[in-house]
Amino acid sequence: MKIIGGSSSDALAAKVARELGMKSSKLEIRKFPDGEKYLRVLEDVKGEDVVVIQSISHSPDEFLFEYLLLVDTLKDLGAKRVTGFVPYFAYARQDERFKPGEALSFRTVSKLIEDVGTDEIYTIDMHQHRVLKSSDVFKIPSRNLSAMPLLADYVEKTGNLQKPLVIGPDAEAEQWAKLAAERLHTDYDVFEKKRLSSENVEIRPRKANAKDRDVLIVDDIISTGGTIVEALKILFSQGAKKIDVACTHPLLMGGALAKIYETGAQNVIGTDTVPSPVSYVSVAPLIVEQIKKDGFR
Ligand code: R5P
């Protein structure tokens, strides 16, 4: 078996390989003067099971294209089976035509990933809202893993929060709030969110009240931080004592992290699906567990 990380996830791939007692395979990746990408696989992959790890984050088009070049090349070089781990799967939020004529980006990206020869695909807390299962989008075997139990374990280990109320800032965050609350043996609720623009949201509470409670807000993605800031404001106005925030994919665009701390969050905790200053939790054990279960050779 070979483990190969594209340039957005090379450190994560190295960690996964280390936990499996091996070294990740090397690639040569650079750009031609006109911006075109050059990619070369530096090891013999003929007849091998190859695990490719590549998040499609921050420069999504660039990292997606790199993934496509890599998998197509591996298959062309004779790799027996190529399994894609795409820890952060961009474009999943554009799963519907909200305005006439819009691209169904989620579907297009999924098709490209299949067309280059990915044999099976794993994602981690992929944004699943209107699309509820990976199999609604992919024709190849697919599985969406969750980092929420790992994040909850980390929160518990820090000991900052006492029996926290877990809050998901919108309806689709219920899946993550439930997982985190189960792990922390506590209760959860979700808010109602209306998106006004790509940076502005309106949030309303439902049943739970945070008065005199420690709170953990959980979400899949923090991008501009707008969602978390609005949730923090509501929870503090209800009388929450301390609030920590956990997310799987800390994209943290612009001043998101500063905005969240300024609004009063004590800790922001993310994973290394997207490398960031708050990527305290590694998803490597999740990937390793899956590789062991699937019996790669
Ligand atoms: C969308 O509903 C996601 O689950 C996140 O809540 C959203 O992407 C966060 O975006 P932002 O940080 O820009 O509010």
Helix content: 25-40%
Q: What separation lies between the terminal Cα atoms?
A: 5 Å
Trace the largest sheet across and list its strands: 1-4-5-6-7
Regarding quaternary structure, what we see is: single chain
Largest sheet, strands/sense/barrel: 5 strands, parallel
Structural class: alpha/beta
Each distinct ligand: ribose-5-phosphate
**Care to count the β-strands?**
14
Low-confidence stretches: none
Individual helix count: 8
Compose a concise summary of this entry.
By secondary structure, the protein is α/β, with parallel strands linked by helices. Helices cover 31% and strands 23% of the residues.
Task: Tell me what the structure shows.
- The protein starts with a strand and ends with a helix.
- Helix 4 (148-158) packs across helix 5 (174-184).
- A five-stranded parallel sheet has the order 1-4-5-6-7, with helices on both faces.
- With 297 residues, it is an alpha/beta fold.
- The protein has eight helices and 14 strands.
- The protein is 31% helix and 23% strand.
- It is globular.
- The protein has helices at residues 10-19, 60-76, 105-115, 148-158, 174-184, 226-238, 256-262, 284-294, and strands at 2-5, 27-31, 37-41, 49-53, 81-86, 120-124, 142-145, 165-168, 188-190, 192-195, 201-204, 215-222, 243-250, 267-269.
- The structure holds ribose-5-phosphate.
